[in-house]
Amino acid sequence: MPSTLPKANISNGPQVSDMNDDTITQNTQIVNSQHSDMRLMFLLLKAVQHLHDFARETRLTTDEWMAAIEFFTAVGKMCSDIRQEFILLSDTMGLSVLVDSLSHPKPETATIGTLLGPFHTHDAEEKHEGESICSDGKGEPLLIEGLLTDTEGNPLANGSIDIWHCDSNGLYDTQYENRENPDMRGITKTNEDGTFVIKCTRPVPYPIPHDGPVGKLLQKLNRHPYRPAHLHFMIGKPGYDELITALYEKGDKYEKSDAVFGVKTPLLYTLTKLGEEKAKKYDMKPDDWYLQWHFKIVSEADARKVKLEKTKEALGKLPSNVVLNQEGLPEFAPLD
What we know:
The chain is an alpha+beta fold. The chain has helices at 24-31, 38-58, 62-78, 85-92, 95-103, 213-220, 276-281, 300-315; strands at residues 141-150, 160-164, 185-189, 195-201, 206-207, 226-227, 230-236, 243-249, 268-269, 272-273, 289-297, 322-324, 330-332.
């Protein structure tokens, strides 16, 4: 054992004793409170409280606890640079879409968000208006004409529209072993009038990766792993709250049983045929697919206001030792 290891100074730390079912929670919270990060302290207090209450209420057994440890270990081992099994687990438990909704609440006049999903990358190439984000043979051609405005309907120029989706095989480019370049994904900018035009392909339903521990869990729960056909969007503009959302095909067989709970009614679309005029304009065929959508994003200032209002509404009257910080999040009041 190296002699340079620091010695624990127990005289300055909290003293806890008499560990039993009734005292262990408070003792753990006391020991975890030896710092001045009030938000972290609040998070840990609640996490310990709920975890311990869960164990007490379910009378959690050692075997069940160990099974959970082994499951989470397997989830971690499945993670890689192109696969995040923990996000997949969060998605399938409904946590991802809940956290997004809590973190980015929207006024009724704005486009609502939904979960990011595990397939977004940061290597998407920028596309010019009317270009395709998909290589040839990836599916039935689809033209998207979009409009980006603020919540008052004022057009937003030079907004970033990051879009990605699966191919006709129900796979994302990162799921192919021979992936060399980004495909089925791209970034385009809005024009002065807030419009953008991009070509892609009609998305299809697909199963989330289910060859790992999350897939085994779904099978154990008698749940299917499928998602309805959808298109992912990440929309950004300086001064505005980033919008992470997706559009879902109305009437899809998995519309009401999405494996990751991402479908929201205002995000349902119905495709139409492109028609002669637009087909000629964009060098496509009249029978190709067409989607038009109006995205409305909220300013950062209004987003903070809505978040604060939602937090106050959800939490009601806060105890005297809890305050809302500058981000509108609950934390313990600073220590005197």
